[in-house]
Amino acid sequence: MAGAGEVLCLFDVDGTLTAARQKVTSDMAEFLQNLRKKVKVGVVGGSDFEKIKEQLGDDVVEKFDFVFPENGLVAYKDGKFLSRQSIHAHLGEDLLQEIINYCLAYIAKLKLPKKRGTFVEFRNGMLNVSPIGRNCTQEERIEFYELDKSLRMCMGTMTTTYTSGYSHFLFCSMRRPRLALQPALHTGGQISFDVFPNGWDKTYCLGILEKEAFSQIYFFGDKTMPKEHFRDKFVADLRKEFDGKGLTFSIGGQISFDVFPNGWDKTYCLGILEKEAFSQIYFFGDKTMPHKPEVVPWLRNGAYSTANIR
Ligand SMILES: [Mg+2]
């Protein structure tokens, strides 16, 4: 256990201590060893232990007080192995198989321009799910990515985090309280997404560090700033400023947003029609369905039907 009042400086690896997937420079390595004379120093990376050794050296566990490959699913302390966790041990075979079966059944019903192999890849800390299959060629990958992206464009800004079309539908229909989903960053998010238990990100290792008595833990990473969506923030500020004034702010398109009085959407004309004595009015439009991600591509693009899934 760390002495009471000790400080830990914890560093992300890729993009922080090293360029993505590259080896640490000698300057950085020296700086870290100097820092270690003053405080405890730990590293946490998303990659596995082998990859972290390639980047930080074979003696990485001796050079740092804590080493957390796979975000801490594997942990080393003071040069010794400490613990290991896996998605299989955590979720159990039943739930794991339920998720895999769900993904495979979902993908089985998708009609895509190309389908290849390895639709669900099992890894220690996650499942990686790909509608086209990870065995696709680079050309097929790009073809899928472009199609997937165009579907997402059709859907507009359904979510603030980046998710792509096909992956997104599967994604949305899979939401479960214990699971987190995110695009697979290691592949640029082009053809797959990851499924893993909630909290199994870089913060996972903090659970392990709780047992230590550090007075403070400083985390250094290249992605620690909250993502600032300029338009979202702008609109949120406007809503606050003009609260109660009966205005709607609607983000649409790529570069702008609209401001208009409440109710000035397609229903506006109904006010005019009220004076007429119609017994019934039938409205026909392309966006009349309640928001249901998995039917959207069917409505917009009959060639790639994912309707009736679930
Ligand atoms: Mg990083």
From TrEMBL:
* Sorted UniProt keywords: Cytoplasm, Isomerase, Magnesium, Metal-binding
Q: What does this protein do?
A: Involved in the synthesis of the GDP-mannose and dolichol-phosphate-mannose required for a number of critical mannosyl transfer reactions.
Q: Does the keyword Transmembrane helix apply?
A: no
Q: How does it assemble?
A: Homodimer.
By sequence similarity, the record places it as follows: Belongs to the eukaryotic PMM family.
Catalytic reaction equation(s): alpha-D-mannose 1-phosphate = D-mannose 6-phosphate
Q: What is this protein called?
A: Phosphomannomutase
Which EC number(s) does the record attach to this protein? 5.4.2.8
Where does this protein act, in terms of pathway?
Answer: Nucleotide-sugar biosynthesis; GDP-alpha-D-mannose biosynthesis; alpha-D-mannose 1-phosphate from D-fructose 6-phosphate: step 2/2
- Location(s), subcellular: Cytoplasm
Q: What organism is listed for this UniProt entry?
A: Ranitomeya imitator
Tell me which domain of life the UniProt entry assigns to the organism this sequence originates from: Eukaryota
